[in-house]
Amino acid sequence: MASSDTTDPAFAHLLTYIEDSLAFQTSSYNDAYLDRRISARMRRRRVDEYEAYEELLRDDEEEQQALLDALSVNVTSFFRNPDVWEALRDVLRDLSSRGGRRDPITVWSAACSDGREAYSLAMLAHDDDQVDERRIEIVGTDIKREILRAARRGEYHASETNDLAEQLEPIGDWERYIDRDGDVFQVKDKLTDMVRFKRRDLIREDPPGTFDLVVCRNLFIYINAESKRAVFETLGSALETGGYLTIGMTETIPPECRDQFDPVEKRLRIYSASDAAAQR
Ligand SMILES: C[S@@+](CC[C@H](N)C(=O)[O-])C[C@H]1O[C@@H](n2cnc3c(N)ncnc32)[C@H](O)[C@@H]1O
After folding, report:
1. Any idea where the CheR-type methyltransferase domain is (predicted)?
2. Which pLDDT tens digit goes with each residue over 107-127?
């Protein structure tokens, strides 16, 4: 059995090695999450101690890559948590009722992984006749370049554990937006044309603009309290007056950042920029 004790000095030593030599910022993530991922790799390699695993890692480039892959959680889907998407439809309708017919509605899918969240937003805009999709401008950002390349391609492969047709069910007639050839699903140009993908580190960098809707889901579950605060500061500063923020269904806003956001649909984690935020 691999030892699993995040207070073990060898664990801290291993994290420092990963941060300094493999360029993965362990200091931004929470220890329990890092330990789960590292211990899984240790079990795979039948190593019991952090120290022995660090030794192995130093000499084994394949294991370095396998660990980096294990540490990046890119799990996503189209219309993840369908209830949220029904509420986001109302958000897009509300934003559409504001401003002039040609005013852009800006949307940010922050930590967008392979882009399915950003394309879900684009489909929702097309699907709703109260929303003019020509007004919608979507930016998708993630820290990982490789995943952004996949997002730009907009090509997804179905598998037993990735039932894309089922994920797309909430939109009904999804073949209007995606070409299917067996297990390969290719997002059509009318969606890819609506989304720009850029690399951004949400913990350390400024937002890529200001937005009417910011969707940042399922990142906070992995990062530590300090990084969480930094990301909420960034998201808050990116919201237009009266703009909306959505976070993951199991995520919460840290108490010290709550005055910036008013709950709109608390259970679904949809908030609007508060008056306190506007005064900053
Ligand atoms: C679990 S995925 C969430 C994808 C999508 N938002 C969803 O809910 O389905 C988390 C994403 O956060 C990205 N990520 C991790 N750390 C980040 C950081 N510091 N800045 C930006 N993105 C980050 C990962 O690369 C990954 O694609």
Report:
1. 1-274
2. 999 999 999 999 999 999 999
Whether pLDDT at 2 is above 60:
no
HEC profile of 92-148: HHHHHHCCCCCCCEEEEEECCCCCHHHHHHHHHHHHCCCCCHHHEEEEEEECCHHHH
Write the pLDDT tens digit of every residue in 4-55. 788 999 999 999 999 999 988 899 999 999 999 999 999 999 999 999 999 9
Q: Terminal CA-to-CA distance of the chain, rounded, Å?
A: 52
Q: How many angstroms does the Cα of residue 142 sit away from the middle of ligand 1?
A: 6
Q: Is 214 in the pocket of ligand 1 (CB under 6 A)?
A: no
Cα separation of 147 and 154, whole Å?
A: 11
User: Which of the two residues, 160 and 158, has the higher pLDDT score?
Assistant: 158
DSSP secondary structure, 18-47, as one string: HHHHS---GGGB-HHHHHHHHHHHHHHTT-
| Sheet strands side by side (includes 184-187) | 155-157, 184-187, 178-181
In the chain, CATH 3.40.50.150 sits at: 82-278
Distance of CA 48 to the CA centre of its chain: 33
Fold of 82-278: Rossmann fold (3.40.50)
Strands 239-247 and 270-273: antiparallel
